[in-house]
Amino acid sequence: MTSPHIDSSALGSLAQTSPPDGRGREVVFDVTDLNVSYGGKLALKDVSLEIRKNFVTAFIGPSGCGKSTFIRCFNRMNDLIPGAKVDGTILYHGRDLYASGVDPVEVRRRIGMVFQKPNPFPKSIYDNIAFGPRVLGMKKGLDDRVERSLRAAALWDEVKDRLEDNALGLSGGQQQRLCIARALAVEPDVILMDEPASALDPISTSRIEDLIHELKSEYTIVIVTHNMQQAARVADMTAFFSVELREDLGGRHGILVEHDKTAKIFTNPSDRRTEDYVTGRFG
């Protein structure tokens, strides 16, 4: 099976280089029977999967299937939404993220997030990167930390001579890499990316994808994307979500259909619903 969304050359390269499913790697997130609701209305039902260290895991699926809801569970961003309720278990390195006594602020330091639209602070480039470390008391060697973060985000050479300029003056692609650098500055373990390139032009998108490849040697990365070409290019593992209609459960909600090696998801999926989606027959 070859999808019209994924060119055959990309699939050939993907199939040759895709790593094994990572069973020998450390499990970073172990999700069991996760349900998420908003105001009592079910949004995501019965999700169970594992995310392993130094892999890029992509979440794909049609709009409304719960991809963004799910990724926000990993750093407890749903806590900030009135009426949101998360049931089930998410273990992070074996510890329940939602247990009493777990500090959501510390969770968000360890599990950084980059959003769909670049959101730099209306401050200097330097102060954008230094903001998190300052809040957390990580003030020693701040200049070096800012430089390391900008280098890691492949932005240093472009901004090193204008660190005091307002970050809002950067291009869209530069702003998104700045937001990645800002996340890296507080030394996270995981980087969550919710459609990080959807608002960018193709050249900027390519730079973000190259950056993802570079960063996964140091970080575990989870990415939500509507772009299946992008999932095929950057992800080691892919999870396909879909929408289920159950009137007895209040209408539409998202479900996890399949989670496997990216090459398998796009060339030989186990579930017909996945095949229909990646071939363009659905969604």
TrEMBL record:
It comes from the Bacteria. InterPro entries: AAA+_ATPase, ABC_transporter-like_ATP-bd, ABC_transporter-like_CS, P-loop_NTPase, PstB-like. Residues 29-268 form the ABC transporter domain. Keywords: ATP-binding, Nucleotide-binding, Translocase, Transport. One of its GO terms (molecular function) is ATP hydrolysis activity. Coiled coil: none annotated. Residues 1-22 are annotated as: Disordered. This is Phosphate ABC transporter, ATP-binding protein. It comes from Gaiella occulta.
